[in-house]
Design a protein that fits this description.
Layout (H helix, E strand, L loop, with lengths): L2 H20 L1 H9 L8 H7 L12 E2 L1 H4 L1 E8 L1 H22 L6 E5 L4 E5 L3 H10 L6 E6 L3 E6 L1 H26 L5 E5 L3 E7 L4 H9 L4 E6 L5 H8 L9 E3 L6 E4 L2 H8 L7 E8 L10 E8 L4 E2 L3 E8 L6 E7 L1 H13 L4 E6 L2 E4 L11 E5 L8 H19 L4 E9 L1 H30 L1 H23 L3 E2 L1 H30 L4 H33 L3 H33 L8
Parallel strand pairs: 1-21
Antiparallel strand pairs: 2-8, 2-20, 3-4, 4-6, 5-6, 7-8, 9-14, 9-17, 10-11, 11-13, 12-13, 15-16, 16-19, 17-18
Helix pairs in contact: 1-14, 1-17, 5-7, 7-12, 13-14, 13-15, 14-15, 14-17, 15-16, 15-17, 16-17
């Protein structure tokens, strides 16, 4: 056998064995674990052999196939806007007092989102109007003898409505990730609603209670002078396979580990009564729901300030340092408390915590009066401007979520029965098996040996699709099964085209060797063009579609790549082996 054929066979062998290897977690998930633990990644990882891939690389079933909970949450953006106008009025009043303008009061019109400022005399009112020219979130709509009325700009209303839904989605996703639901689907629906799918969950009331719980933002002081972690490591060394280690990424010692529960349980050993340990998710890339490792912070158990006092947060680029920053503002009482907190702890680090997760721990450089603060994000090594800005924007949403500007209510909640999912799996699987069997039989009867070779490639094609879905931790839905069956048909079509080309060459009087070589060469570009055009359509569906459409597109794209490989590489290698013999060389 020539070198080119040996190389082709090695590639086929490596791809086949790799596909089988990547399907091991999927096999254990569906055939070894009890059905109740199918979505439990930790239980699956515990059962997998050490040489198997991670439990993350498995094929998941969508809501339509395994059942679960479907919810629609509505964000009350109108109430949020009304509260925003009220808070803005208080901020403006404090600003005017700082400018030595006294005697001003305000009232609001919640329905029109209007703010009316009243002054004791026209001269004071003139000063008010002059000072507020820099406030671009309001526009003046009228002035009377002793009052001036402002209305929230339409651009601010639109931006706030969008941000309110985004931050609600952030809180909901964080809560669901903490619950441990696999392949959760959280996406925006319309302008003020959020659609949530929880595969494998069967208790709607529990889901409603989890998602509807108020998010809690806290500011806690980090105990950077303590040597608790180093003493803990010396007294109770972490297990060798835990990956827990003592690190100093900042100016104080911390613990780092990859398993959240294991790290938290270890770090909280021998903990003083007045302290607690909280974790921060560390990611190498901005990827939702994924943590490469966790950092442990030793913080004071006392909570001196919560998000109830936070009035706003905005991400922007610093005009001086060119770094990204998040500017915070508190209400009157919160400003006093924040000023005292920062004044008493200059030089220390303050952890910003949402739902017991540390999002940031900036250093307090000086006392911060007037309820205004700035968190400088810094420039992480190797991160682009877009990634750095996204980090600042995410922190902005986290802080705003803690301020609770928008109430979230349950608009719809229903349970998708597991029995329906099982029935769909059976019917979908039966359709795929019957269709595959009929195609295999037709190819074997009509094309004989060439048909049998095509059947081998077709079976390998199905294996590659399943392995590809498992590799990317994809979710298989009913439309995904349709995409799977469709790509098998495309693979068969490619083999039919090749076989007919070979027949034409044989009919023209060419030898078997020449007919095979020229048949594959002439059919290549036709097959390649057809696959690429379909692949472009699949990529468009994947980028613009949602839910079941994305499931169909994912199966289609992986299937097209597998079809190209099996029809061009696999069948040619097998056919060349039988036609050319062991000593032949074939050029591609």
């Amino acid at each position: 056998m020539g070198r080119s054929n040996w190389g082709r066979w090695l590639i086929i062998l490596a791809v086949t064995l790799g596909s089988i290897w990547y399907l091991i977690p999927t096999y254990y998930s569906f055939f070894i674990l009890p059905k109740s633990q199918r979505n439990d990644e930790k239980a699956l990882q515990a059962r997998l052999p050490r040489w198997a891939p991670s439990a993350k690389h498995r094929l998941n079933l969508g809501l339509d196939l395994q059942g679960g909970i479907h919810m629609v949450m509505r964000v009350d953006t109108q109430t949020a806007l009304q509260k925003r106008v009220e808070r803005r009025g208080l901020q403006i009043l404090n600003f005017l007092k700082d400018q030595k303008i006294e005697g001003v009061t305000y009232t609001t019109n919640p329905e029109k989102l209007e703010l009316t400022l009243k002054a004791p005399d026209p001269a004071t009112l003139d000063k008010v109007e002059k000072e507020l020219k820099g406030f671009d979130d309001f526009t003046r709509v009228g002035r009377a003898q002793d009052s001036i009325t402002y209305q929230l700009r339409d651009t601010q209303v639109s931006r706030f409505r969008e941000d309110a839904v985004d931050q609600a989605m952030l809180v909901i996703r964080r809560r669901i990730d903490k619950w441990g639901v696999a392949e959760v689907d959280v996406r925006k629906m319309g302008t003020d609603s959020i659609q949530i799918s929880l595969p494998g969950r069967q208790d709607p009331e529990q889901a409603k209670e989890l998602i509807g719980t108020t998010a809690q933002l806290e500011f806690r002081m980090v105990d950077e002078k303590s040597n608790h972690f180093s003493q803990l490591v010396a007294k109770h060394p972490p297990p060798a396979d835990s990956g827990i280690k003592l690190v100093r990424p900042n100016a104080y010692e911390q613990l780092e580990g990859k398993d959240r529960d294991q790290l938290l349980a270890y770090a909280r050993q021998d903990l003083p009564a007045n302290q607690d340990v909280l974790l921060q998710c560390v990611t190498a890339q901005a990827q939702k729901g994924s943590c490469d490792s966790y950092l442990a912070y030793l913080v004071d158990k006392a909570v001196p300030l919560t998000g109830e006092s936070l009035a706003g947060a905005d991400a922007s680029r610093s005009p001086t340092s060119n770094d990204f920053e998040v500017n915070l503002s508190f209400d009157t009482q919160g400003g006093v408390e924040f000023g005292k907190l920062t004044g008493d702890n200059v030089g220390r680090y303050m952890a910003i915590v949402l739902d017991d997760n540390v999002n940031s721990a900036p250093r307090i450089n000086e006392r911060i009066p007037n309820g205004r603060a700035r968190i400088t994000m810094g420039r992480s090594l190797g991160k682009s401007d877009e990634q750095a800005y996204q980090e600042a924007k995410n922190l902005e949403l986290v802080l705003r979520a803690g301020a609770l500007p928008a109430p979230v209510t349950t608009g719809e909640i229903r349970q998708v029965g597991a029995s329906l999912g099982d029935e769909l799996v059976r019917k979908g699987s039966l359709a795929a098996i019957v269709g595959l069997a009929l195609v295999v039989a037709f190819m074997a009867v009509y094309y004989r040996k060439s048909g049998v070779i095509a059947d081998v490639a077709l079976i390998l094609n199905g294996l590659l699709i399943l392995a590809g879905l498992a590799l990317f931790n994809a979710t298989l839905t009913l439309p995904g099964i349709a995409g799977f069956v469709l790509t098998l048909g495309i693979a068969v079509d490619a083999n039919v085209l090749i076989n007919e080309r070979v027949r034409e060459e044989l009919a023209a009087g060419k030898s078997a060797r020449a007919a095979v070589d020229q048949g594959y060469d002439r059919a290549f570009w036709t097959i390649f063009d057809a696959h690429v055009t379909t692949l472009i359509a699949g990529l468009i569906l994947l980028s613009t579609g949602t839910g079941p459409v994305r499931g169909f597109a994912t199966s289609l794209i992986i299937g097209l790549v597998a079809s190209l490989f099996t029809s061009i590489v696999v069948t040619r290698a097998i056919t060349t082996y039988f036609v050319h013999g062991r000593g032949a060389r074939v050029s591609v």
